Amino acid sequence: MDQLYGYGLYLVSLLTMGGIFAVVALGLNVQWGFAGLFNAGIAGFFGIGAYTAAILTTAPSAKNLGGYEMPYVVGFLAAMGISGIIAYFVGKICLRLRSDYLAIATIGIAEIARLIFKGETWATNGPRGIAEVPKPFETWPEPWNQLAFLALVLSFVAVIYWLVERARRSPWGRVMTAIRENETAVKAAGKNVETFRMEGFVIGCMIMALGGALMAHYLKFVDPNTADPLLGTFLIWVMLIVGGSANNKGAILGAFLIWTIWSASEILTSRLPAELAIKTAYIRIFLIGLALQFFLQRYPQGILPERRPAVQGDDNRSQKPK
Amino acid sequence: MSVLELKSLVGGYGDTQILHGVFMHVDPGEIVVIIGPNGAGKSTAMKAVFGLLNLSEGQVLLAGDDITNTPPEQVVRQGICYVPQTSNIFPSLSVQENLEMGAFVRQDDYQPRIAEIYDLFPPLAEKRKQAAGTLSGGQRQMVAMGKAMMLEPKILLLDEPTAGLSPKFRGEIFSIVKTVHGTGTPILMVEQNAKQALGIADRGYVLVDGKNRFEGTGEALLNDPEVAEMFLGGGKQTADASIGPGEA
Amino acid sequence: MAEFINFYVIPGFILGSIYALGAIGITLTFGILRFANFAHGEIMTLGVYFTWSLIQLTDLHPLVVMPVAMVLTIMVSLGIDKMFYKPLRAAPVIMLVIASFGMMLMVRSLIQFFWNVQLKTVNPGISMPIIIDDWLRIAPKHIWIILGAVILMFGVHYLLAYTKIGKAMRAMSDSPELARLTGIDTEKVVRTTWIIGAGLACAAGVFLAIDTQVETQMGFRLLLPMFGAAILGGVGRPYGAMVGGLVIGLAEELSTYHWIGDAALLNPSYKQGVAFAIMVLILLWRPSGLFKGKVF
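The joint structure predicted for all components is written out below.
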């Protein structure tokens, strides 16, 4: 019975983490799937969200900036706001150029964010990180607190899915698709492509920051490794590419799937002797990378390929009330 | 035997069929011009020769040899050189280096050929060290054609060499084309400026909707009232239009 | 003054030449294969670990075994191209960027697997700096690094300016489509690009390892400065990358000098930000870079 309870709790934590990653993957889908933008600094925006929420909602501490004890909602909104503002400036510089430049600039932002989290000890407590971040429902008895938090995360996934899916089907989403297909034609139609890209990029980064904030509350802790620039970014990319770019269901599926594989393989290898366990950790990264390459070459559409909203003209007519 | 022969070409890009049966041939020493309205498949026909699109039907024969659907890097080796409409030089390379690149597939000593090209286009000789991107429009076309001539091709394909140029420069380009032709190289050329082009052409083809519509000697086409009406800006004007490169 | 030159200008030049060598590969790949290669830093790290292993085997000076390490690195790089990049050449270029991003983690995890993450050194021992005119101090290893970098850069210059394949590389960087129509063997050009890029990356990594230490993140740390140098110099412009590398290396070192008062102008832990700041400024002011490179 105890064992079963343990498995149950593991399943809850698996789903909670998967759900948080699903939020981030949906954010990336807005950028990559909709707008065709390559964000190589997901972990940076995720970390910005996590730190913002942590600093705003924690109790006073001598070790770091904070102690504002703000409500969770304020933390979420501020995380999204700050991430959005930073995204706006990055976008302003890079979006007129091809996606490679955005990739370079975002990886730079993630690196600098990590340096700041590590270096500005007065605000972030440096490498030791910020502890005792409050967690919703934490006063509830076990396991109800875990279940309630899971429900919270899943409702975030559901709401964001609903919003993003609506956006995809809206005229805005169709212009996004059209830009990926034929940018010149969209420009010729008088649309400002850069503005659309900017909207996609900023919204995506805001969703990623929300994911970071959720993570900070879930783990009750943030440190510079929360924003490990490579692994975090890389996993989210694998999730989206494997799940299915431009398909919101695919993003969610990919997040849960890859996180389950990642987490389960960690548990399996952790039973090995210590030295071997460390070695196999590297092999796991290598294999996940290989999976990414395999999908890029063989199934670039992912498990759930993109499903286009019906052809513009017809659809418009049928939807408009006469 | 014709240098180049296109037999019943059918094909296009992806799902879009553009050519619906194009016939053409170029005989030794000829300048042949393809004219027609926008979207008639003029440039596409030329690209088909050069292996830039997949033909579902038909044959391309180079001096009797079947080269249908041969990729461009092979077509070059077989002796066809193609000058695209835009970005037809390497702008950051010097004039001399552009010519050397034109001879990339040659294994023998091509220095004498470079000297010949400079003889053909004296302005280039003076600017041999200059980056090709800094030259005037006409000189760029000299580089583009000189580069294509480095392989001493069996035939030269020119895709709208005068596109986007003012009438004054058009004349300059047509005289460059005539210079190249003067070396004995047959030329197949797509042109928008039908009148001037037919003026220097031995023969011409009129393509409409991916099919042959008219063909004949340059002169015959110029005097054909139907062709004149369609492409030469109305039949009335043709009667008194003076034609040829001398016009500009 | 002596302090300024010995501890800021000379290290700036050393770092700058290392960035320059690395950035040449980045800018050539960007110009010719048309994508930002994120795995370039890890290729550099790989070269360093090959060198380290060769030193363990032979007990020779790092610069002696370096050519062998370069060959090994080049072989890996060509293998990666064949298995992972070539199948994506017909796909949108951004797929190549993603593939190289994945490759960055794959190569790094293999390095960590085979060589573990402990710090290593390739330094053959401490040597006394040479003192010139009583104030100018320069370590022998720094002389080696600068000499090596200069020789390699002249090699690149010779190749690009005087050899057929080098000119073809520049041509393809100008216009890949026209290169193909002209009959240039584009696959050969691509291979040569990887050979030069990987070879120089290995050399740059070894120089850095001689100057500092060997660790698994060293290549990744250089990625931003190298991208910065490539963009500053102008994408596709190898000479630009050389200048860009030197500028960024010097700027990073000089940014920590106590220009005002006694404190460093910039906290040394933010040195990496200098490259980023320079890159942002150049993208704002002149995305084609100093040498009029490509803007995609």
